[in-house]
Amino acid sequence: MSTIDKMKKSFFLVLTILAVTGCTNRNSVKTNSPFNKIEAIEEKYQPLPLTEVKPQGWINEQIRKNLDGFVGRLDTLVPQLIRDDKIYGESRLTKKVKNKEVGALGDAGDWQVQFLWWNSETQSNWRDGYLRSAILLNDKQHLSNLQKYVDYILSTQDKDGYLGIYDKDLRYRFDNENGELWAKATLLRGLLAWYEQTKDQKILSAIERAAQNVIDNYPAFHSHPFYSKQPNVGGTSHGLMITDVFENLFRITGKETYREYCLFLYQDFSEQELNESAQYKKLMNDTLLLSSHGVHVYEHLRSVAAAYYASGNPQLKIALDKFLNKINDETTASGAGVGDEWIGGKKADATKRGYEYCSLQELMHSYLELLLKTGNNAFADQAETIFFNAAQGARHPSESCIAYLKSDNSYYMTGGLNGDNSNKKQTRYTYSPVHQEAAVCCVPNAGRIAPYYVQHMWMKHNQSLVASLLGPCVVTTTVNSHRVTITEKTNYPFENTIEFVVSADSEFDLKIRKPGWVTKFSVDTEYIEEDGYVVIRKNWKGSQSVKINFIPEIVERKDINHENYFTYGALVLASPLAAREEKTKTFAIPGFYNFKYSPKHLKTYWYAGYPVVAVQNNPLIFKTILLNDSTHQKETVELVPMGNTILRQVTFKDPPH
To answer: How far is CA 207 from its chain centroid?
Structure first.
């Protein structure tokens, strides 16, 4: 053998060794990867279509008020953001577009380019809540208007299935901020609800074609949809929420590809250089508090859960559990996750930290998804706490408007947090039906929160129908191929007796969630307790009723900062402050205003250790004795549900020694 041949042989031997070594290393990484699929996990409960649960009582009245107010009129309140911008159609974004009216105040310049996707979020999140509200109330006029919108959107779909906001010179070609996946997520969530209402296969086909277009252009595990050359991106990070769409498509079609795509999306999101707290390695680092944009954090909880259930990988389960623990550090007494607008590595605080209405909807939705997946009713408790307390306490009690940012202890609503008006442009701590000066994002989400709550009030589990969230409603569905209608008669959480009127001719289990606050209750029929549920097993005939009475108590609790607060059943109580109202804007549409509020006489209190007692003949008004923190004198103070307040004090510190 010649010297040259020997050299060639040695060279190829080295290449072979390197190749084998490289393969071995790659296989090792893959084997140990948290994104390695082991075995997908079946969800414990099955969701019901939106059309099968109808609100009654106070929830129905609230959705009607929303539909007659900011939910049904937002397009006329801000027409330039909704009606005038056909961002999904003839006004798709191209490289030539450098500026757009998106509603937020700011100086003109190239910086605005990064916000050009904003109107897609405003439009699609608004319509998601709008159409769900119209469906729940079966409002024929609104449904007719929405049918025209759906027809228009479907007409914008390209032959290759593309539905979105970018023309061909931009779509799927980004190395920086973009709204590609986020615009699709918000749009398709609404279209999925419309499909549930119509069962029109044309709509489902359009959604599946749009989903396949995403998969074709961002092939699973062979592309990088979340790559950005700079780490601070809004629309790009929001885009992870297209996992909502893929998970629901999996539930509808049973196609495993959709669920597996959620795993890929979370993997790529985690591996990019982004300032996002929900990335895998950051979740696993116990020394890191949550720090990024609050809404991103709370919605991304669903994506982490989706990835875990798609893979069954125990490493993702550890990350999910750590995520929940970190969120607990950011949770106030009212159930809200703080973020004003960034969490910033600081824990929740009833006075010094605010929360976005967007975050209330997204965190509640995430808890509901975890309830579906696990069957653990603690997630239902957390969802109810948000909806009954933080969400009600951030909407105006009588006017059609909401607070963009709110805090549990809310002493001023004049622009900045609790009277800090050093930033003259800050308007988030006020009430408005649009909040155009900041961003028209929280108002659309305020229209989504009640419909999402209603849809998850009932779920299925094998041969059981599960009353998972409590409140006045009617459910009509099938169990074991038999039609069942149950009317839930109650004023919960403002009263705690619930009558279930069951119309059925079949045998099934009625499972009623026992809220975590309940220690005493009675049921007027035979039952067993099972995993936190009251289970009634019987062969139902005709119309029969079951009455359950949860017996509430006033409970003294402590938040994460060891400040004291009081609950009555599912309700968090607050000391209301008399407020001075200022109308700062009157809209062209009668009945819509912006408001600021300041206290007439600001008095705050320390905890004094005295019991809270109900006022006679007034079951939702309470009295206790607290210490005035200015005079140090004891005073009798009234407490009411925080959802009935504008200015208030919810938590009370122990007095200094």
So the answer is: 22
Task: For the chain, give the number of residues.
Answer: 657
Residue type, 622: F
For the stretch 461-472, pLDDT in tens is 998 999 999 999
CB distance 373 to 557 below 8 Å: no
Question: Dihedral (C-alpha) 365, 398, 437, 362: value to the nearest 10 degrees?
Answer: 0
Q: Rg of the chain over CA atoms, in angstroms? A: 26
Long-range Cβ contact pairs of 586-589 (< 8 A, separation 24 or more):
587/77, 587/433, 589/73, 589/76, 589/77
Note the Cα 462 to chain centre separation in Å.
27
**Which tokens go with 5?**
């041949």
* Residue 538: both structure tokens together: 């019987």
User: What is d(CA 167, CA 547) in angstroms, rounded to the nearest whole number?
Assistant: 58
Kindly report the three-state secondary structure assignment for every residue of 413-436. ECECECCCCCCCCCCCECEECCCC
Contacts for 88 with CB less than 8 Å, ≥ 6 apart: 120, 123, 153, 156, 163, 164, 165, 183, 187
Structure confidence at residue 114 as a pLDDT band (50, 70, 90): low
Q: Which CATH architecture has domain 459-550?
A: Sandwich (2.60)
Left (φ > 0), alpha (ψ -120 to 50) or beta: where does 632 sit?
left
Name the CATH architecture for the domain at 97-455. Alpha/alpha barrel (1.50)
Instruction: Give the SS3 label for residue 599.
Output: strand
Q: Which amino acid is at 586?
A: T
- Yes or no: say if 479 and 496 are a contact pair by the CB < 8 Å rule: no
- Which part of the chain is CATH 1.50.10.10? 97-455
Q: What span, in angstroms and rounded, lies between the C-alpha atoms of 292 and 97?
A: 29
Separation between Cα atoms, residue 43 and residue 499, nearest integer Å: 29
Contact 263, 35 (CB under 8 A): yes
* DSSP reduced 3-state for 87: coil
CA 59 to chain centre: 18
Q: Residue 555: which H helix or E strand, with range?
A: strand 554-558
At 608-638, the pLDDT tens digits run 999 999 998 888 999 999 999 999 999 999 9
Query: Kind of pairing, strands 543-550 and 497-503?
Result: antiparallel
**Structure-block tokens of residue 307:** 């990835």
CATH 2.60.420 in the chain, residues? 459-550
Q: Which amino acid is residue 587, in one-letter code?
A: F
Instruction: Write b or e for each residue in 506-531: b if 16 or more Cβ atoms lie within 10 A of its Cβ, otherwise e.
Output: eebbbbbbbbebbeebeeeeebeeee
The reply to whether omega before 299 is within 30° of 0 (cis) is no
What is residue 110's DSSP assignment? G
Q: Which residues pair with 612 in a beta bridge?
A: none
Q: What is d(CA 126, CA 149) in angstroms, rounded to the nearest whole number?
A: 13
Q: Give the pLDDT confidence of 175-219 residue by residue, as tens digits.
A: 999 999 999 999 999 999 999 999 999 999 999 999 999 999 999
Q: Is 24 exposed, middle or buried (0-12, 13-18, 19+ CB in 10 A)?
A: exposed
Backbone φ and ψ for 332, nearest 5 degrees, come out as: -90, 175
Distance CA 431, CA 446 (A): 12
Q: Which tens digits make up the pLDDT trace of 525-553? A: 999 999 999 999 999 999 999 999 999 99
